[in-house]
Amino acid sequence: MEQPKKKILLVDDNEIIRLMFANIFWLHGLDDKYELTTVSSMSEASVFIANPATRPNIIFTGLVMPFEKNGKIETSAEAGFSLLKRIKTDPETQSIRVVVFSGYDEDEYRTQALALGAEAYLTKGENMPQDLLQLIRSFDSQ
Question: What region holds the Response regulatory domain (predicted)?
Fold first, then answer.
């Protein structure tokens, strides 16, 4: 019997990053093992996470993105940290593996993400395709 595909959700407000991420999956044949969904906002991500039928096994999330706070749209690292904290403190979702996927390479962001329960912190950059593939393959072996 064939194993069901693992669900991966990419949350990033940059369309080029979403397209590149999807192309990496396709080019390396990962679409045979994984069902990749990409969304551009925290609110879209919340819909997928809340529904057990669409809930991902792994989430790659940007850090600094627009989000709604007190009825206003703000852009800050609070967006990614808020999503991570919400996932890791909810018994229904805390087993989801979360990887912060950011253009910011500051130690304080990395430290905070890992302290909140992120499995890894990947920096967007030249090595991103290789780092992404290596990380996904490490999840397969666990």
Answer: 7-139
**Which residues on neighbouring strands pair with residue 58, listed in sequence order?**
8, 97
The contacts of residue 106 (CB under 8 Å, 6+ apart) are none
At 93-133, the pLDDT tens digits run 999 999 998 888 889 999 999 999 999 998 887 667 777 78
Total-model pTM: 0.89
Range of the domain at 117: 6-140
Number of helices (H), then strands (E), belonging to the chain: the values are 5, 7
Say if CB 66 and CB 13 are below 8 A apart.
yes
At 73 the three-state DSSP class reads: strand
- Runs of H (alpha helix) within 14-127: 15-27, 42-50, 78-89, 107-115
How many domains would you assign to the chain? Answer: 1
Residue 1 lies in a domain: no
